[in-house]
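Let us walk through a complete example step by step. Step one is to write down the protein sequence. Step two is to encode the small molecule, fe (ii) ion, as a SMILES string so that its atoms and bonds are unambiguous. Step three, shown after the inputs, is the structure prediction itself.
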Amino acid sequence: MTVEVIPFFHVGSNTFSYLAADPASGDAAVIDPVLEYDPHSGAADEAPAQALVDAVRQRGWQVQWLLETHAHADHVSAARWLKRQWPQARVGIGAGIVQVQRTFAGPLGLPQGFRSDGTQFDHLFVDGERFAVGGVQARVIAVPGHTPDSIAYLIGDALFPGDSIFMPDGGTARCDFPGGDAAQLYRSIRRLYELADATRMFVCHDYGPGGREVACQTSIGEQKRGNIHVRADTSEQDFVRQRTARDATLAPPRLMQPAVRANIQGGALPD
Ligand SMILES: [Fe+2]
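Step three: the predicted structure of the complex.
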């Protein structure tokens, strides 16, 4: 069953959010929705999420799932805001969120009553878990490495790998956040490479390297042939060496503190 995928690009964080729908039933999932957030004024703007609401309304779809690929460090999730628009939708994230919550609760000074048990979300997905978007079968593939809670969603023939892997010329995501692990990311990507070459892949970020226009869609086959960090024949050792050297040069994301703080609470905005 072919799933219809509509991308939405957020300029401020170079994030792609997606609507993935079963056109036959009109049931849909949203992947990685973004809320505009200004850390200086503390002001939030739901315009990027409103665009999702408008697109869903135009098509007469019903959103059943609000899916996070991981607790993002570069933007605030719009899942909580969207849940108010669509109360039937369930917010899902990987079960590893519990580990991320334990790691960050102290350093981010979350209140005493904060529970590091994932209950801020409606559903915690485990590796291999199956679910459905209307009549389209879906499956979760754990892809730890960038973060411990990273999961990929395979919905029909469309894969949403989160921040494990970017477009072929964008390589892979950094592995230097607390709980990140380059060797683990390599093994996660090898698991994705076991999928059929024709599997469509929709990336979470694109920065248009070399001045090309931003793009969001590639395939497993294209990645295996051309990803600048992990091709089909790249060794774990080579990848880890390259990834670690690159991570040593990267600055922390601008929104890291408020974004992680909000996102491990299921998209609760900073005070
Ligand atoms: Fe990320």
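Step four is interpretation. The domain at 4-263 is CATH 3.60.15.10 (Metallo-beta-lactamase; Chain A).
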